[in-house]
Design goal:
heterodimer, A: mainly alpha, about 5% strand, B: alpha+beta, Rossmann fold, 2 domains, six-stranded mixed sheet, 21 strands
Chain lengths: ~290, ~375
């Protein structure tokens, strides 16, 4: 076959190239540039090679944040996905109650993230918060500012409250897309409720769940605002997740070089985990 | 095994029906006998699917009773009725293999796995699905999927009736024929009552022994394909069955017959008396294009028509004529020459039907006579007429 050589085609790619360059490539290259230098001030910087990367990988503080981050993200997925499916299954499908339920479920998604943090910060306070006060008055010793378990519990609860609706809404739309004939056929086949869920609803929720799990993983892996407002990463460092550790380093201590190296590692981890997720789910689909 | 009896059944989707128009099914009495192959034929929106869902229990009728072998079923849910239903769009459980799909109803009934295995294999063999048993059901073609939905009904040994809701809609034309034959074969083999909903008269008449034609929420006629063709009980049946349908002409009553515009059509004395007694102004005469007699020459008593259009369909021709401002269609065998200029036609008395308020009326004696004549008539070739 004769290949037609027409270099003009490259011009057509140019707009996309420029757009991607400014939105992704240039910022990332800036960070790469920082990550290989030791920067003292605007005019004083030394090339240090892979030094910062080596140091970051050895940094126990960051390693602990990473472990915390994975624990948080997987806990969040383990709670929110089943709960979201359950909520979607229970939501009414017809009539006025359907719209009322939709609005009620969507409310947490509409609240700005720092406000979510503030709401839970006040709500959970042992002295004036309804939630915290109630727990304490029924005899449970609960104080999220001093107790690690309580802090974790509150952060998780807040995220579940904030983001389960996303999974629920995705699943709700997925469930609505199942033709009535499937349920009718299942009734005639004498399928139990569980069998209907297992063999009709769940398989047909797969595609929305893939999106839901990916979104929730990425978002929870990069969580910053809500725990920052709620616990400020404490008590101690017990709820300091990766992004917060990174911010402390880059802005608090102005360690631009290490912070840049660290953010690239962070980015690669997110990319890697998403890739693993995605291929695993795709493989699951192929096996069928 | 079941005989399905619909007793003064009516259904309305509105909770507070006021007039007849609010009813999707108007009050009807009907019996589907055990082991019959029936078709429920009618245009979209005439209530056929509603009726089917009432029989299977997916819908609960607002009035009347559904009886299986004399036992009232109104409050029995579909899963407790011994009925299978095949839907317009094939329903298969995507995540399962073909085998698991077929085994699903049996496993839901907690039948021992050894029995499931033998039963599924048996049905798969009948439906020619044996080679697909280990495949995922999601990757199959529409006709294979439809066979699976049918198979899920057949595996249950307790099934006494299978209801089909336009099952061939999404099937490729060349496979429709095969699947229809399969249905017929299964019907003969299993002695199961089958009710087949369709809007396609060809499908209905090849599948069913008897066809119920539905129109406006009512069964307007229940009979063999030939009865529907030769003696349509309702003007709609005449119009709907046959290709092209019956010529229906609105007429006014006058002495010795009826007339439209300036054309007079003779009727028998009995019919005339009957019409005069009924006193309705909604009178139509109907005659099938196949039964209009075309003369080669002008003839006394024949009507002279203008030729408008000729459609040559290979084995026969369809002439469109204008008779005194009224369009009629006539079917002419292929060996007949198309007359030039004016065409002379007459309406043989035994094929000329009279409809008052849309329903057929026949003189008592004339009816008996008509039937005799029908049987003497050479059989009408179904393939051609439908």
């Amino acid at each position: 076959m004769n290949k037609v050589r027409d270099n003009k085609a490259w011009f057509l790619v140019l707009p996309v190239f420029i757009l991607v360059a400014f939105s992704a490539i240039v910022p990332i290259m800036t960070v790469v540039n920082y990550s290989v230098q030791d920067i003292f001030d605007q005019n004083t910087a030394y090339f240090v090679g892979a030094e910062w990367y080596k140091e970051m990988l050895r940094n126990t503080h960051l390693r602990e944040s990473l472990v915390r981050q994975f624990t948080f993200s997987f806990s969040v997925l383990a709670i929110e996905v089943p709960l979201g499916i359950l909520v979607a299954l229970m939501m009414p499908t017809k009539g006025r109650m359907a719209s009322v339920a939709l609005i009620l479920v969507a409310i947490p998604l509409l609240i700005p993230w720092n406000v979510v943090g503030t709401i839970w910060q006040i709500f959970s306070r042992a002295d004036i918060g309804l939630f915290g006060y109630t727990l304490n008055s029924i005899g449970i010793d609960y104080n999220y500012t001093s107790d690690t378990t309580a802090a974790w519990f509150t952060v998780l609860l807040m995220d579940v409250w904030h983001w389960t609706p996303l999974i629920a809404l995705l699943c709700y739309s997925g469930l609505r897309a199942i033709p009535e004939a499937f349920y009718q056929a299942a009734r005639i086949d004498r399928a139990s409720k569980w069998a209907v869920f297992r063999h009709i609803q769940l398989p047909r929720l797969k595609s929305v769940l893939v999106i839901g799990v990916l979104l929730r993983f990425m978002d929870s892996f990069m969580i910053y605002t809500e725990p920052f407002v709620l616990t400020g990463g404490g008590p101690g460092n017990s709820t300091t997740f990766l992004s917060q550790a990174l911010t402390k380093m880059a802005i608090g201590q102005f360690d631009l070089g290490p912070a840049a190296a660290f953010s690239l590692i962070y980015y690669l981890i997110v990319l890697l985990v998403c890739y693993v997720f995605f291929s695993a789910i795709k493989q699951l689909g192929k096996a069928k | 095994m079941a005989e399905i009896h619909l007793k003064s059944l009516a259904h309305s989707y509105s909770s507070n029906p006021k007039s007849e128009a609010d009813y999707a099914i108007r009050e009807m009495n009907h019996v589907w006998e055990q082991g019959g192959a029936y078709a429920l034929l009618g245009p979209s929106g005439c209530g056929k699917s509603t009726l089917l869902n009432i029989i299977s229990g997916l819908l609960s009728p607002s009035n009347g009773q559904v009886l299986f072998d004399g036992v009232e079923m109104n409050n029995i849910p579909p899963e407790k009725r011994n009925i299978a239903q095949v839907f317009q769009f094939p329903v298969v459980y995507d995540s399962m293999t073909v085998f698991d799909n077929l085994a699903f109803p049996l496993r839901n009934m907690k039948i021992p796995e050894a029995k499931v295995l033998s039963r599924v294999n048996e049905i798969a063999h009948v439906l020619e699905l044996t080679e697909l048993l280990n495949k995922k059901a999601s990757n199959l073609t529409a006709d294979e999927k439809q066979k699976i939905s049918m198979g899920r009904g057949l595996v249950r040994s307790d099934v006494s009736a299978i209801l089909f809701d336009e099952p061939l809609t999404v099937i490729d034309p060349h496979l429709k024929w095969k699947l229809r034959r399969k249905l017929k074969q299964i019907h003969e083999q299993f002695n199961i009552t089958m009710v087949y909903v369709t809007h396609d008269q060809l499908e209905a008449s090849t599948f069913a022994d008897k066809i119920a034609v539905m129109y406006g929420g009512q069964i307007v006629q229940f009979g063999t394909p030939r009865e529907l063709f030769e003696r349509p009980n309702h003007a709609f049946v005449g119009y709907f069955i046959g290709s092209p349908g019956m010529n229906l002409i609105e007429v006014k009553l006058e002495s010795q017959g009826v007339k439209f515009n300036n054309t007079h059509v003779d009727l028998s004395d009995e019919l005339n008396q009957l019409l005069a007694k009924m006193g309705s102004t909604n009178i139509k005469i109907g005659i099938r294009p196949e039964f209009i007699h075309v003369w080669d020459k002008p003839n006394e008593g024949a009507f002279s028509c203008e030729l408008v259009h000729v459609e040559d369909l290979g084995t026969y021709k369809i002439l469109t004529l204008t008779l005194d401002g009224q369009q009629i269609k006539v079917r002419l065998d292929e060996d007949r020459l198309v007359p030039k200029g004016n065409v002379f036609v007459s309406f043989p008395e035994q094929w000329l039907k009279v409809y008052v308020d849309e329903f057929l009326i026949e003189a008592q004696e004339a009816e008996g006579e008509g039937k005799d004549k029908n049987t003497q008539q050479k059989p009408v070739n179904k393939e051609h007429t439908l």
